[in-house]
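@channel anyone free to eyeball this complex?
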Amino acid sequence: MRHRQVIAVLALAGLFVALYLYLYKIGVYGELKCGSGGCETVQASPYAMLLGQPVALYGVLGYAALFAICMVGLHPRLTAQRWPTTVLAVLATLGFAFTAYLTSLEMFVIHAWCRWCLGSAAIITLIWFVALPAALRSRRPRTGS
Amino acid sequence: MKRFYLLLGALVIVGGALLYVAGKSKGGSISAMTDVPPANDGFKGYALGSDSAPVEVVEYVDYECPICAIFATVQFPTIKEQLIATGKVRWRIRDYPLRITAHPNARYAALAAECAGEQGKFWPMADSLFNHHNWAQTGQDVSGLFRGFAQGAGVDPAKYDACMQGQRYAGRIAASYQEGEQRGVNGTPTFFVNNRPYPGRATSDGFKGYVDTLLAARTTRR
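replying in thread with the prediction:
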């Protein structure tokens, strides 16, 4: 169950990054500690909103869901269950695909880099790298006695 | 397992502390705005539409006002399409930042729009202020957020910063406010059509009906 622990730690770190971006976006923080100004350019672009809500909010919800599933999956009664691993892999894949889309927007459309967004992209990529192999392993039939 | 929960606990403490510290360090927009006497520099507000349009609408606006934001985002796009783009109406914006505690950033927002306007980006800046209106619900410092809006609008950030720090147009905003008071404005948005208070509803249909009536009367008189 080591992979669930690793994902839980990563998801919690990602949750703080997404929360920071979300609180900035709704005006709780006056400025982003970014260093380059690129964060504010990205956050002020129309692509920082999706379906009327800041994109960072989807990050907050996504990381919160990943963290919650990990914690549930670490309960002694559920450690042998396969479904938390499968759900984690599905969520991580969706998050990774969404992040890849957002990063491509930064690169090709907005032409600015938000370091916090890149940090979040690195975290969800790591989660995906842990979650996917774990899900594939869990689907293999167990051999031996 | 114990080490795992210790690690989670440490992460929660560190992450929470960082978010708290980030919330404490503010850029100082509200306190940076000082009272400046009205300075009428002859500027009559940013206008959209043809100089030869037969009808001019003047809108007194407060960027922190939610009704102004709803009007700007819901009604104004249709007005632009039906009345401004067709050459019937020229739309002029005048600042009227309400002096109420619920709108602590209204003057700062007006200043941000003016500073973007100085670089030819008034309209995209005004759009950003209204389209991302969540800032108006928190009453927190917005300096970095507005700076981001300005950069997104294509403004040179160094010139923008100099304009904001020097409150270059604070006197102009105060003069616009004073003008509004003299005309009887007591809330936002308030509209004047060809220098007369607009009697209709603040909707695209309301304006279209009123403008069409004015234009029809004009045609009949000829």
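from a first look: The helical segments of chain A are 2-25, 38-44, 55-73, 83-110, 115-139.
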